[in-house]
Amino acid sequence: MGSRSATADRARTGDPAPDGPLLRIHDLRRGFTVSGTTIDVLKGCSMEVARGEVVAVVGQSGSGKSTLLNILGLLDGADSGEHVFNGLEVPRLGEGRRARLRNEGIGFVFQQFHLLERRTALANVCVPMVLAGVPLVRRRAIARELLESMGLGHRLSSRPHQLSGGEQQRVALARALSLNPPLILADEPTGALDAASSEMIMDQLLGQARTRGAAVIVVTHDPEVAARADRVVTITDGRTR
Ligand SMILES: Nc1ncnc2c1ncn2[C@@H]1O[C@H](COP(=O)(O)OP(=O)(O)OP(=O)(O)O)[C@@H](O)[C@H]1O
Ligand SMILES: [Mg+2]
Which residues of 37-74 are buried (b: 16+ CB within 10 A; e: fewer)? Predict the structure, then answer.
């Protein structure tokens, strides 16, 4: 095992690697207070996700899908409820540990790609590896290999604005995979793409996750995307069903 994996494994799991589901949430709640009024968005979300499982999250606009994904991605915290990721009780983690887990244990793909505009495709893929301390030569080799495996070997030096939407999303997916995290979170990853690019991104996302044994939670409005998941979770009235 190389130093990259050892670092990532420690950050993801703590020691030793736990048995049981990769992710468990129970009765998770989150509200937002705006101008003195509190809106309860998540009113009791519960689910378990096994290692390597693909789960689609669906629900009406405004039902709280992104709110839930942000909590699962450790970008936001729940007000109450259980949240265990890879054997770690998330609410008990300090900020440093949480930040490292977010970077090394979870890969993110967003509808709007969120690439760094002034950086090349290769440099964008390297970002999580820079934060994780992967040495320069190694991270460039990993990024190149990932981009080549996604058919972007000829685009390593391109900036995001020089790439199509589908190409940008492949770069974002390569970035999400670069530290080989056990969980990929995707918030409407095909929402800004045409049908052909959507299919290609889903092929890549699911194929790469399967190869690596990573679980995927994908928020989507697209029935064709949801149909490719092992399981569909619906958010209705702030609760998972
Ligand atoms: N930071 C915030 N402050 C206040 N309200 C928020 C905040 N984040 C989300 N909300 C509210 O929470 C509700 C759920 O938002 P969320 O973005 O999770 O919905 P969604 O299911 O992802 O919708 P969409 O399908 O349109 O993306 C909305 O009413 C939204 O206005
Ligand atoms: Mg959303």
Answer: eeeebbbebebebeeebbbbbbbeeebbbbbbbbbbbb
Q: What is the pLDDT along the chain (241 residues), one digit of tens a residue?
A: 344 444 444 444 444 456 889 999 999 999 999 999 999 999 999 999 999 999 999 999 999 999 999 999 999 999 999 999 999 999 999 999 999 999 999 999 999 999 999 999 999 999 999 999 999 999 999 999 999 999 999 999 999 999 999 999 999 999 999 999 999 999 999 999 999 999 999 999 999 999 999 999 999 999 999 999 999 999 999 999 9
CB distance 37 to ligand 1 below 6 Å = no
Q: How far is the CA of 201 from the centre of ligand 1 (A)?
A: 25
Nearest C-alpha to atom 24 of ligand 1 is from which residue? 61
Contact (CB, 8 A) for 49 and 233: no
Give the chain's end-to-end CA distance (angstroms, integer). 40
Which fold would CATH assign to domain 3-240?
Rossmann fold (3.40.50)
Record the tokens describing residue 192, joined without a space. Answer: 């800004």
d(CA 115, CA 121): 8
CA 187 to ligand 2 centroid distance, Å? 7
Locate the domains of the chain by residue range.
Answer: 3-240
- Residue ID of nearest Cα to ligand 1 atom 28: 62
Q: What is the DSSP letter of 91?
A: G
Ligand 1 site, residue 33, Cβ cutoff 6 A:
no
Cβ 67 under 6 angstroms from ligand 1: yes
Cβ(28)–Cβ(46) below 8 Å: yes
